[in-house]
Amino acid sequence: MATRKVDPAYPLQLMRQNVAGTVILYAIIHADGTVGSVRVLRGVDDRLDQFASQAVAQWQFQPATKNGSPVDVEATFQIPFRPPRAGTNF
């Protein structure tokens, strides 16, 4: 379970260019709750892939346990980038 999430950057310029999609990442949630070994499994755009990776690397989790002891676990994350609908003031 996540105890801290950081939203990825999504620059206005990329929104206006309609650069959008869902970045899928792989990472290890360490026994201390930190995230490491972040890799892009399916990217959208090099810039969005980087923003998603940087954000997930800052997330913090309640450690998973096995037999009562904290353990590392593998995880995948889907980070959506969707520009606001037309009609907003962007």
Could you provide a short overview of the structure?
By secondary structure, this protein is α+β, with helices and mostly antiparallel strands.
Describe the structure.
The protein has 90 residues and is of the alpha+beta class. It has one domain: 2-Layer Sandwich (TolA/TonB C-terminal domain), CATH 3.30.2420.10. The protein has two helices and seven strands. The longest helix is centred in the middle third of the chain and has 12 residues, at 46-57. The protein is elongated. The N and C termini lie far apart (34 Å).
Keywords:
two-stranded antiparallel ribbon, alpha+beta, TolA/TonB C-terminal domain, 7 strands, three-stranded antiparallel beta sheet, 2 helices, 19% helix
Give the CATH superfamily.
TonB
Helix content: 10-25%
Based on DSSP secondary structure assignment, what is the total number of beta strands? Answer: 7
Q: Tell me about the biggest sheet?
A: 3 strands, antiparallel
The SSE order reads: EHEEHEEEE
Mean pLDDT: 93
DSSP strand content: 35-45%
Order of adjacent strands in the largest pleated sheet: 3-2-7
Radius of gyration: 15 Å
Global morphology = elongated
Detail the poorly predicted runs. none
Domain count, please report it.
Answer: 1
